Amino acid sequence: MNLKCILTLVSLGLLGPITPGFAAATSATPKQAKGSPALHTYTLAQDGTPESYDEAMAVACLQGIINRETPEVYVLSRKNPRPQFWLDVLAKDGRWLEGRERKPLTNLTALVKLAGKRLKGAVIWDPAVPASINVATTIAGVQDGVVLSPEFADRYLSQWHLPILKDLRGLFTGAKTGSKKNDAYRWAIEQYLAKGHCSAHLLCLFEDSFFTRSRGDAGYVLTRDWAVKNRAFVFDLSPWGDEKPMDDPEQRLGLDLETYKLMLAETLRHSAGKQMTELTGFFAFSKYANMPDHKSTHEPVPTEWESVWLMSPFNCYQNTISSECFNQSLHSQAPRQPLQQHRAAKKVPLEKKTYICILMADYDSATPLYEFMPNHWHNADRGKVPLAWGINPNLLETYPDLIAYFYSTATAADTFTADASAAGYMNPNRVRKEYLPLFVKHNRRFFREADMTLAPMVLDWDQPTADVKDAFRKFAPDGLATIVMDLHGTGGKMPEPHIWKGMPVMELLNDTCNFASAEQTANAMANAIKVRGNKEPGFYFFRIVWVNPKNILETVATLRQKRPDLNLEVLDPLTFCALFKQFHERQAKPPRP
Length: 593
Hints:
The protein has 20 helices and 19 strands. The chain has 593 residues and is of the alpha/beta class. Strands 11, 12, 13, 18 and 19 form a five-stranded parallel beta sheet that branches.
C-alpha cells in the first residue's frame, strides 16, 4: 500500500467526520434502468460481541451468493456510517441506484429466504482452529454455502432446513504438518485450489478469528461477500520464513511461508499466461510484525514490502487494506463505461523555476478509497491548487461507481493517476520476463478505462530495468516515478532522472509522506530541495498521504515564506512531466560546435 503511517490503520485514526452534503454532479455511471428490482438492505449490529461477528459472517456469505449475478442486497451498519453515506450518494443525481425501492430485511431468516434455492447448505467452522473460518469461507464460495459457527448452527440449521455441506470441527489436528493452521490451509489448497475450483483472479488475505471473534471485530468478516461471490481462496499466513507467527508459535520455522508459496504456485498454475491475480487484504499486524502486543524483528512496513516481494513473481498484485469495505459484491456490478478526465498538459514555457508536483496518496486499495478519500475530497479548497490523486485503476473491478463519482466531481485542477505501483501494487522488477506482455495487457486495459497515462508511484527494490521501462512506456507514456527500498541488501539504487524512449523517469520524493502540519511538511520539502542542489529549473514530485487540499495550500504558502529565494511553481502532473521531459531532452543534446 505505502511506506506510510501504517499504524493508523489499526485504529482508523485518520477518519474524520463524514461530510453530510456536497454539490450535485452528473455521474459517469448511468442511472439504473426503470423497473429495476428492489434493493434489499440488512443492517449489521457490529456491537463488538462474538455473536455480532457470527452474524456478519453469515450475512456476508448470503450476500455474496445472492449478489453473484444481480445486485440485490446492500448491507448497512449500526456502527459505521460509511455504507449509508455511499448509498445516499449513489441513489441521487442520476446515479445507478437512484429509484431503487429499498426493502429492509429484519433478520437472518429473511435473508436466507431471499437466497432461496441459490443457497445450497451450511459450512460449520471450528473455533478451536481459527484458520478454519477462512477454509469455511473458501468452501462457501465454491459450494454456495453459508458459514456458521457451532452456536449459530445449533440455533438455525433445523429452522432453515439446510444440509451441512462440510463440518470442519475436529478435521485439522496438525497430524500432517505439525500445525493445525497449516493443515487447514494445505487441505483447502489440495481440495479446492489445486483442483481449479477457486478463482485464479482473486485471493483474499483476510484475518482469521484468532484475535477478532472474541472482540467482535468484523472488519475482515463483512468483506467476505466479495470472496464468496468470486469463489476466492481465503487465507491468513505470514510472509516471513525466519520467524514464527504469533498465532502459531509451535509450528516449524518457515512453515507459514512454505504454505503461502504453495498457494501462490497453484494459483499461478491456473492463471499463467491468461490473467494476473489480485490479492486483496493485508497481513494481521499483531501476528506477523512488531507491535505493542507482539515483539518481532520485522516492522510493519518491511512486512508489507516482503509480502509484495513474495507475490510479484507469481503474477500477483495487491489491493492492500480492504477492511471495513462493505458491499463489494454489489458495487462491483455498477454499469461501467470508459472514464474521462481533464487530462492535458498546459503549454507553459520552461523557466528557471522550482517546479513542484503533489501526489495525493495513497488510494491504491479499497479501504482508503472507500473510507478515507471522501473526507479529503469534500474540501472547499479543492480546485485551488493542481493535484495528482493516486487511485489505482484496478479498483474499477471493486468500486467502479465510487471512482466514477470522484471523476464526475473533479475540477480542472484534479488529475487522477495510478498509485502503488500501477493497476495494482506489485514490484515490477520481480515480474518474470515471460509474463511482462501479460503485465502490459493487464495495465493497459485499466489505464485506458481510467483515462490515465502516468504511473508516479512505482514501488520496487531497485531502479526499473530496461524491460520494465519498456513495459511502462506502453501504458504510462507520460511518466514513471519510483520509490526504491532495498530491504534485501541487493544493491538497489534510485534511477537518475532521465527520458527513456520518450517516457520521463524520475524519483518520487517520500520525504513528505506523513503529514503532521504545514510547518513540518514545508520543512521536509525545503530540505529535499536543498539536498538535491537547489537546481533551477528543478523538478520535485512529492508524495503526501491522506491530506486535503487546504493542507497543501497551507504547506505551499509556508514553503514560500521559508524559502523566498525559490521561484516556486506548483504544476499539475502532466504539465510537470512535460516540462521535465523538455528539460532533460535539451540536456541530452550535444552542444553545437
